[in-house]
Amino acid sequence: LFDCTCEATSGHARALSYETTHGTFRTPMFMPVGTSATVKGVTTDQLRELGAQVVLANTYHLAMRPGAD
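RE: above sequence
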């Protein structure tokens, strides 16, 4: 599924690099959460400006209430 490489350690801090079939991302990072599959309060352009590498999209709510919304 993915490969994880530890790039740096300092005390309790960790800097990691994850390589997936969809691309590579590094930690620590800002990861916005998309409840009901949509990030609220910011535009797509703002997400790009913030440098978001990953969006955690929670689709559980969509499965519980299917429909056009």
